[in-house]
């Protein structure tokens, strides 16, 4: 699933691809449509982000850089300056996608209405965490921000869209429960969860219990078991439904008259991975430009922080 380059004895060599693992978005993809999961996690078909998804990614990158500054420097003016840097780092096609007014300043202003970043103590930003469930099911995800305080750890998840309706709440909470489970597996603690919905200036706080996370782990184990059954032959079947309307791969789906590309085989031949403890970012070190590409996009235009 992609390659990375590493330096070894002065020469650049290819590192082996990372084994597949479940992330919040990929788990949600499989539950929605197994073929969608295959297109994104196995075929890795390219996707053009929507303006809303790209806008959300820009805001995430700005807030990541903002919280890398010294607390006293985390002011609205600094955020606007960082937004200019992130927008300038986009390639011309992506910058054109956002139009003359990218709509970032308004979302940042709402962020400052939700919290004062000068009072925040964060251990890490864009933190990659990997773990295994008791049955060996591999999990992987990126946390927008991990805060520390007298009450323990808090996972902060930025959402560029509005707070979900009652009907859509499950999809939103699926992701943050995933992050809570990752920390429970790697650190032995159940964190508090905080979602910041910038579009309507709404903050939601959840306090999952260990029992809730145990039940959630069983759901994820069942998802991974289904994926491993389909992996050897590529038997990832479409699940037509309302989501087909905005699916970027509709023209390749047999349920709509399309033809999928030939199955490339399961990455690494065996669907397994090893647990890796969370590695916090170095405090005070801004992430390098350019802005990271959107990892995934929901129909609402929100970006989902995780890895394939």
From TrEMBL:
Ranges of compositional bias, category Low complexity: 266-282
InterPro entries (alphabetical): PDDEXK-like_dom_sf, PDDEXK_AddAB-type
Listed Pro residues bias regions: 283-293
UniProt KW Ligase keyword: no
Tree of life domain: Bacteria
Record-annotated PD-(D/E)XK endonuclease-like domain positions: 22-254
Keyword Transferase: no
Gene3D superfamilies associated with the record: 3.90.320.10
Composition bias, Polar residues: 299-308
Keywords: ATP-binding, DNA damage, DNA repair, Helicase, Hydrolase, Nucleotide-binding
A Pfam family that the UniProt record links to this protein: PDDEXK_1
Region (Disordered): 1-24, 258-308
Name recorded for this polypeptide: PD-(D/E)XK nuclease family protein
């Amino acid at each position: 699933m992609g390659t990375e380059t590493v330096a070894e004895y002065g020469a650049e060599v290819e590192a082996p691809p990372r084994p597949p693992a479940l992330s919040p978005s990929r788990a949600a993809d499989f539950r929605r449509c197994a073929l969608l999961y295959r297109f994104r996690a196995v075929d890795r078909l390219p996707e053009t982000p929507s303006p809303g998804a790209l806008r959300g990614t820009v805001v995430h990158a700005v807030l990541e850089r903002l919280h890398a500054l010294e607390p006293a420097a985390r002011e609205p003016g600094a955020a606007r300056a960082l937004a200019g840097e992130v927008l300038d780092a986009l390639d011309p096609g992506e910058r054109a996608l956002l139009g003359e007014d990218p709509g970032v300043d308004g979302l940042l202003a709402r962020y400052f209405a939700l919290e004062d970043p000068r009072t925040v103590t964060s251990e890490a930003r864009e933190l990659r965490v990997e773990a295994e469930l008791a049955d060996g099911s591999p999990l992987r995800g990126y946390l927008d921000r991990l805060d520390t305080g007298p009450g323990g750890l808090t996972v902060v998840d930025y959402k560029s869209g509005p707070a979900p309706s009652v009907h859509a709440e499950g999809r939103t909470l699926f992701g943050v429960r995933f992050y809570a489970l990752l920390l429970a597996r790697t650190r032995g603690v159940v964190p508090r969860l905080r979602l910041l919905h910038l579009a309507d200036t709404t903050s939601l706080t959840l306090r999952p219990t260990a029992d809730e996370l145990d039940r959630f782990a069983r759901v994820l184990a069942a998802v991974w078991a289904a994926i491993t059954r389909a992996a050897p032959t590529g038997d990832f079947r479409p699940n037509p439904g309302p989501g087909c309307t905005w699916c970027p791969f509709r023209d390749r789906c047999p349920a709509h008259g399309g033809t999928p590309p030939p199955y490339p085989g399961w990455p690494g031949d065996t669907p397994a991975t090893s647990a890796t403890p969370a590695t916090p970012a170095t405090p005070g070190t801004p992430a390098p430009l350019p802005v990271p590409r959107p990892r995934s996009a929901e129909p609402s235009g929100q970006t989902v922080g995780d890895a394939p």
